[in-house]
Design a protein that fits this description.
The chain is α+β, with helices and mostly antiparallel strands. It is built from one helix and 14 strands.
């Protein structure tokens, strides 16, 4: 993001295929999708049903512990062709393979009442009430809304659209976001800071652990030497 300058949408066609490019503008879509949960018109949606349940197992001390776990029981991700429009014109985007930072439009938790009808997501029907360990189901959905701001970072494709880097199956550096570049940058810096603090904490903990272990080993060796020396001439 930092190394790629923003290109006017109409200027993408003049760039060579494979050139990294970023565009900012308004998302336009001639054939929008309808999201499966919120029923919102969009160019992309990710819909998930997440089961939350209890799991009981033994810890290292042999004590029984009950923990709250989650599992995705149904998921549907769909793209529609769209374009990014700015004052210079528009450029098409092929979204498949992108890392999508979509807008969350639903996050609803429903307790498991048992015997309720199922829900169909992406052609898969999820039947509610999967045993007494089930707490409930969380319905989560994110979309790329149409006629809304969008940021795209990718490469120029042979057909003039923006898409992923075609390097034998490895797709990287292709991002579509409903947030601005500035908002994304702040988020990535915050995540990097948190990871750095966690890494520093683990390093300090490891150093203390090694120091304590080394000290205990020295004390044990000294005690053993002293015991061997008792009663010797």
């Amino acid at each position: 993001m930092r190394d790629t300058e923003t290109t006017p949408a109409a200027g993408v066609a003049a760039l060579l295929p494979g050139t990294p490019v970023e565009v900012k503008g308004t998302l336009r879509c001639e054939g929008p999708l309808t999201s499966e949960m919120a029923g919102q018109r969009c160019a992309y949606h990710l819909s998930r049903v997440i089961r939350e349940y209890r799991e009981t197992d033994r810890d290292a001390d042999g004590d029984l512990k009950t923990r709250r776990r989650t599992e995705v029981v149904a998921e549907s991700e769909r793209f529609a062709p769209f374009s990014v429009e700015d004052p210079s014109g528009a450029v098409g985007v092929s979204g498949e393979g992108a890392e999508v930072d979509a807008l969350e439009v639903m996050n609803r938790f429903e307790k498991d009442a048992g015997g309720e009808p199922g829900i169909t997501i992406g052609g898969v029907t999820v039947h509610m009430g999967q045993g007494e360990r089930t707490i409930g189901y969380r319905h989560v959905e994110s979309v790329l809304p149409i006629d809304a701001p969008v940021y795209v970072l990718g490469v120029v494709r042979e057909d003039g659209r923006i898409g992923p880097l075609d390097d034998g199956g490895e797709r990287s550096g292709f991002l579509i976001s409903h947030r601005s570049e500035e908002e994304l940058g702040k988020g990535y810096r915050r995540d990097a800071l948190v990871l750095g603090l966690v890494a520093a904490g683990l390093f300090v903990f490891g150093a203390v652990f090694l120091a304590v272990g080394f000290g205990a080993g020295v004390l044990a060796a000294g005690a053993e030497s002293a015991s061997l020396g008792v009663g010797s001439p």
